[in-house]
């Protein structure tokens, strides 16, 4: 290929210097992509490709008008691409171009999504060296709001838990993490983020600590008391934000340490099982968040979601939230009023970032102004409603510097026009009275405009003309247009510039002079206003911390009012929280299922002597729902919410762990027995006496006796060693026997009944184990012939007593003994033994029964060698298919 020159050459040389996936380069009024980039963009975004010829070669080219770039950038970034943007600027010798920004998923400012948009860095402590460098360091930044958090994590699992909690869109793995296939694999599986390899130097701990101190101040950083690896992660994030040119470092005003210890541990699996922010199918609708979210603002919604993902352990924090929810749920009128006002609020944290970045326009400043006005209005309602005034709400609205907020609002009120345009370079952004020089320009501008506006009338009067209009367009500038009939009678000083079908256009010396005036004044006004506007925008950017505080206060009120609304509309009650073991829920409901179902409420009673419930009941009776309901109620209580029950007393927990048996998950191709066991192992390692553990059919992913044994041993361990509050749903009736031996284990069952020959699920949870022969009973009800039903009762009896069962009617039509083999979980019949014996005897009957041809034997061997635990379900199916085909042959 020949060396490209000119614009195309410039493009390729800029492209070579960036590590972004794509480059777009400004060429006059367009941003252009060339070569492969053009082809890729056109494929992804349905953009038209043309050919650009340059010195005998031709290159694909695709472009978008300057003003339309944002949506295209967004779309590309959302597809995971990192896009470099090169702007054009004037030089003495013409144009030059330079990459000014690399837009990436984590640094995209132009998001319209209400969700938080975190970028994360993960650093493995061992790469840091030194004594305090155990574990992992994490940093999270949301460039759209200026939020910046750091966290230490003890091990990879904890790191993953936090990563899942923050759900970042882009992750910068540290140098060591990049080679950790295990961690990267899990990260890819659980977090839908772009992995970016940021320069290794940026992760150097010394440099990181320095960058972080520069940004947030030495004292703040020391107070955080986080590990070196965590400062390294924070430093890497800061350097990345700077390097990509997002220009929002100024809006990152505070660094906060996220302490896992203040929060309820919720591992990734639990967050998914409880469908906190999306359902198992991946929909937002139907999640716990979607159900309880009645927030008015996107910042409020973001905060409520954050609360759900990070429930708290501190009684003080929780009781404070409860008190606010309580007050707001009873003061319905005041709540309505507050929510109406919140409906007028914009996203202040996002606006602060836009101001810092320099992309806020005058309308954004109007939004700031209007939102700043919401705070005193909300405060006023709170202060004038006794129930609210006495609640923690008054402290929340007082937390931001209200005087400073009022000052900034007044400045914006004096400065920015009522309804400014979104273009910032053409004037009419600012009010009269804001700046003397501008006032003068505006006055003269308006004078000339007034003269132009009234010109048509004057000409009509003075020269007795009819059908006269004065207007302007790009080619003719200002002109006087006279209807054809009157065009012959125009005065001599009119100079004709154009003839149209029904009219003629003229100009005069005076009009041309005024036109020059107006253009000059427009230019001057646009320039001056832009200058003043930029100053004003910088002033707003400097108040980023204030805007974030006000935004936070409004978001908090919004989230609390949302909890109050949901509580009031659904008859939820305030749970009594304490530090003890007791968990008592009277007439509890599942917060999501109750929305769509005639829900049958149920009690829960757990305490020091009853800390482990074995939940039995037929399939589909409601076991899983019951247990999830308990977990959801505890979780809701620990975000400060009311709960769906008549009354509840809840001992706060330090973690909620759930695991659903692999069989249910296997069906969805999500899990293998191996995963089930490693998650069980994780629970057994990390749960404590203060945790809540929910095990749903654990052990089901393997052969019966294997499963029972694992479930049995896990129960003993949880009961004796871990001592966590546990609910264990199982269809292994054997486990109900544990209640007799282990003091804290109790049986409950979900009742089902038979009336008029039909099974009714009562959905009522009662003490004691379920009826063991329920399945046979259902078979009976379903009309299975009596002899079969009677016989199954017999077999069941024998099985329970682990006695041999006679298999009736073997090949020889004689009764055969079969024993359930504990080792393999399969039936061993004596007739098999006998026929094997017969074949060694060489008897004719034995031959036919025992002879297995080598082909079949090979199939059996292959079958045996398949590892069910590690083979993906789809592959299993195809392997079995293949074995079947071979058998048929
Ligand atoms: P199991 O785990 O015992 O197989 P599930 O918990 O999956 O049963 O519940 C089966 C069905 O019964 C679900 O559709 C669920 O919505 C419904 N259900 C469960 N508990 C209740 C209840 N208390 N009130 C009303 N419907 C319920
Ligand atoms: Mg279930």
TrEMBL record:
One of its GO terms (biological process) is mismatch repair. Pfam families: MutS_I, MutS_II, MutS_III, MutS_IV, MutS_V. Residues 854-865 have a biased composition (Acidic residues). It comes from Natrinema pellirubrum (strain DSM 15624 / CIP 106293 / JCM 10476 / NCIMB 786 / 157). This protein is involved in the repair of mismatches in DNA. It is possible that it carries out the mismatch recognition step. This protein has a weak ATPase activity. Residues 826-839 have a biased composition (Polar residues). Residues 691-707 form the DNA mismatch repair proteins mutS family domain. Belongs to the DNA mismatch repair MutS family. This is DNA mismatch repair protein MutS. Residues 497-531 form a coiled coil. It comes from the Archaea. GO terms for molecular function: ATP binding; ATP-dependent DNA damage sensor activity; damaged DNA binding; mismatched DNA binding. The keyword DNA-binding applies. NCBIfam families: mutS1, PRK05399.1. Keywords: ATP-binding, Coiled coil, DNA damage, DNA repair, DNA-binding, Nucleotide-binding. CDD domains: ABC_MutS1. Residues 826-873 are annotated as: Disordered. ATP binds at residues 617-624.
């Amino acid at each position: 290929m020949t060396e490209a020159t000119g614009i195309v050459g410039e493009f390729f040389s800029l492209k070579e210097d960036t590590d972004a996936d794509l480059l777009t380069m400004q060429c006059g009024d367009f941003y252009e992509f060339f070569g492969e980039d053009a082809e890729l963009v056109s494929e992804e975004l349905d953009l038209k490709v043309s050919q650009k010829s340059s010195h005998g070669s031709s290159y694909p080219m695709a472009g978008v008008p300057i003003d339309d770039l944002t949506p295209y950038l967004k779309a590309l970034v959302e597809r995971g691409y990192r896009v470099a943007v090169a702007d054009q600027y004037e030089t003495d010798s013409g144009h030059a171009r330079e990459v000014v920004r690399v837009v990436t998923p984590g640094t995209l400012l132009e998001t319209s999504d209400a969700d938080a948009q975190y970028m994360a860095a993960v650093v493995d402590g061992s790469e840091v060296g030194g004594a305090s460098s155990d574990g992992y360091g994490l940093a999270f930044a949301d460039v759209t709001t200026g939020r910046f958090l750091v966290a230490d994590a003890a091990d990879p699992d904890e790191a993953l838990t936090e990563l899942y909690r923050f759900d970042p869109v882009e992750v910068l793995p540290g140098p060591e993490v990049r080679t950790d296939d295990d961690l990267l694999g899990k990260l890819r599986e659980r977090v839908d983020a772009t992995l970016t390899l940021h320069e290794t130097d940026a992760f150097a701990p010394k440099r990181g600590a320095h960058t972080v101190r520069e940004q947030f101040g030495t004292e703040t950083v020391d107070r955080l008391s986080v590990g070196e690896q965590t400062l390294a992660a924070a430093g890497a994030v800061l350097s990345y934000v700077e390097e990509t040119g997002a220009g929002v470092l100024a809006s990152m005003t505070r660094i906060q340490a996220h302490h896992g210890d203040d929060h309820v541990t919720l591992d990734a699996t639990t967050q998914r099982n409880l469908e906190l922010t999306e359902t198992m199918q991946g929909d937002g609708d139907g999640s716990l968040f979607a159900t309880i979210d009645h927030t008015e603002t996107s910042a409020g919604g973001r905060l409520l979601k954050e609360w759900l993902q990070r429930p708290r352990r501190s009684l003080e924090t929780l009781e404070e939230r409860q008190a606010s929810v309580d007050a707001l749920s009873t003061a319905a009128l005041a709540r309505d009023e507050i929510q109406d006002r919140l409906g007028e609020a914009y996203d202040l944290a996002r606006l602060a970032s836009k101001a810092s970045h320099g992309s806020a326009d005058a309308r954004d400043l109007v939004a700031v102004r209007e939102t700043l006005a919401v705070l005193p209005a909300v405060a006023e309602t709170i202060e004038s409603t006794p129930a609210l005034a006495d609640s923690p709400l008054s402290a929340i609205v007082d937390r931001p510097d209200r005087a400073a907020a009022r000052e900034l609002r007044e400045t914006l009120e004096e400065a920015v026009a009522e309804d400014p345009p979104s273009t910032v370079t053409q004037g009419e952004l600012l009010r009269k009275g804001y700046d003397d020089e501008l006032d003068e320009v505006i006055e003269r501008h308006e004078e000339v405009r007034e003269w132009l506006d009234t010109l048509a009338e004057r000409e009509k009067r003075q020269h007795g003309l009819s059908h006269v209009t004065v207007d302007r367009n790009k080619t003719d500038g200002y002109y006087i247009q006279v209807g054809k009939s009157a065009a012959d009678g125009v005065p001599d000083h009119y100079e004709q510039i154009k003839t149209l079908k029904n009219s003629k256009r003229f100009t005069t010396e005076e009009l041309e002079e005024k036109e020059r005036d107006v253009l000059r004044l427009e230019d001057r006004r646009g320039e001056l206003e832009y200058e003043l506007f930029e100053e004003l925008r910088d002033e707003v950017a400097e108040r980023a911390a204030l805007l974030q505080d006000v935004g936070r206060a409004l978001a908090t009120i919004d989230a609390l009012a949302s909890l109050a609304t949901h509580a009031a509309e659904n008859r939820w009650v305030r749970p009594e929280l304490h530090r003890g073991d007791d968990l008592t829920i009277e007439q509890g409901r599942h917060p999501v299922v109750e929305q769509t179902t005639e829900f049958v409420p149920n009690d829960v009673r757990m305490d020091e002597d009853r800390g482990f419930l074995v939940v039995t009941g037929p399939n589909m009776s409601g076991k899983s729902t019951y247990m999830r309901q308990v977990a959801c109620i505890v979780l809701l209580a620990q975000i400060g919410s009311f709960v769906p029950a008549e009354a509840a007393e809840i001992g706060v927990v330090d973690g909620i762990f759930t695991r659903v048996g692999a069989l249910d998950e296997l069906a969805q191709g999500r899990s293998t027995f191996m995963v089930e066991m490693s998650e069980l192992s994780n629970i057994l390692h990390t749960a404590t006496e203060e945790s809540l553990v929910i095990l749903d059919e654990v052990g089901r992913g393997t052969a019966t006796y294997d499963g029972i044994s694992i479930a049995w041993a896990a129960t003993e361990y949880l009961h004796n060693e871990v001592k966590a509050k546990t609910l264990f749903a199982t269809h292994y009736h054997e486990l109900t026997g544990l209640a007799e031996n282990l003091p804290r284990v109790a049986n409950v069952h979900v009742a089902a009944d038979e009336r008029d020959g039909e099974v009714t699920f009562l959905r009522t949870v009662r003490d004691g184990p379920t009826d063991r022969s329920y399945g046979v009973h259902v078979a009976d009800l379903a009309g299975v012939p009596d002899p079969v039903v009677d016989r199954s009762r017999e077999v069941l009896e024998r099985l329970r007593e682990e006695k041999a069962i006679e298999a009736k009617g073997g090949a020889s039509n004689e009764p055969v003994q079969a024993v359930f083999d504990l080792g393999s979980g399969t039936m061993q019949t004596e007739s098999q033994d006998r026929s094997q014996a017969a074949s060694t005897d060489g008897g004719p009957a034995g031959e036919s029964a025992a002879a297995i041809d080598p082909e079949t034997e090979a199939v059996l061997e292959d079958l045996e060698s398949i590892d069910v635990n590690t083979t993906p379900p789809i592959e299993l199916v195809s392997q079995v298919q293949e074995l079947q085909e071979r058998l048929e042959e």
